[in-house]
Amino acid sequence: MIRPLLFALALIAAPAANAALAPKDLGEVALAPAAGARLPLDAKVAEDGHETTLGRVLARHPASVFLFADYTCASVCGAELAIAAASLADPKLADLRAGLVVVGLDPKDGPDAARRMRDAALGEQAAGASFLTAEQATVDTLTEAGGYHYRYDPATDQFAHPAAVLAVAEDGRIGRALAGLSLMPATLRPALVEAGEGRVGGLVERVVLRCYGFDPATGLYTADAKLWLRLAGGLTVLSLCLAILALSRRSRTT
């Protein structure tokens, strides 16, 4: 567990790479799935070099955390993946049997790049996670279906894309969009419950979402919640540090 958490902390603290995209392009980067949106189950993808469909991958779990990533990313993709995996590994989410599904944004990245990102970001938590590759046409289809707007920077061979995840049901139905770098079990659970069972979580879960600025009408965080998201990101880093400290002390006493 320590390895992916350290990886996440290092990437969050790392300076951003130089970018050549215009402010207009960056302003179009967003995750805004339409109401009732679904990911196409017949989308052709590959896992570890073996062809399959997105439907077969999603069918392994009642609900999944779904995200796009650049497998050669020099920014925060690895941190986002590590945080998602750590949240899913929380014992409070064990009963949901949720999965982690990642689709590479860059069709040039093959299975080797996907495995390197998976192993570096997730470490021992990589078991059960699906890191998929796809042709450009499939990436376009999936991003359009998910309302995922990104831009490619040819000057740096990097992608400007939302640091966000989707809670997706096994039938491809999109539940909610969540900020990836402030993802925590308390916010992830109700999103997966809704995606997996087709219902809104209990009253406590809805209140928590409102405290985080969640807009139930759109499934997104509102602009007024930006400060809360920044604070949540800081709390996530703090919680990761405390987890590492606790595990280190435990290992010294055993």
Describe the protein in words.
This is SCO family protein. With 254 residues, the chain is α+β, with helices and mostly antiparallel strands. The chain has a single domain, classed as Glutaredoxin (3-Layer(aba) Sandwich), CATH 3.40.30. It has helices at residues 2-13, 23-27, 54-58, 77-88, 111-122, 136-145, 185-197, 203-211, 226-253; strands at residues 30-31, 44-47, 50-53, 63-69, 99-104, 130-133, 148-149, 151-153, 158-160, 164-169, 174-179, 214-215, 220-221. The protein has a 7-stranded mixed β-sheet with strand order 3-2-6-5-4-10-11, sandwiched between helices. β10 and β11 (174-179) form a beta hairpin. It starts with a helix and ends with a helix.
CATH level-3 fold name: Glutaredoxin
Strand order of the largest sheet: 3-2-6-5-4-10-11
Count of domains: 1
List the total number of helices.
9
Share in β-strands? 15-25%
**Low-confidence spans: pLDDT under 50, at least 5 residues?**
1-18, 199-229
Major beta sheet summary: 7 strands, mixed
Set down the secondary structure blueprint.
Layout (H helix, E strand, L loop, with lengths): L1 H12 L9 H5 L2 E2 L12 E4 L2 E4 H5 L4 E7 L7 H12 L10 E6 L6 H12 L7 E4 L2 H10 L2 E2 L1 E3 L4 E3 L3 E6 L4 E6 L5 H13 L5 H9 L2 E2 L4 E2 L4 H28 L1
Parallel strand pairs: 4-5, 5-6
Antiparallel strand pairs: 1-7, 2-3, 2-6, 4-10, 8-9, 10-11, 12-13
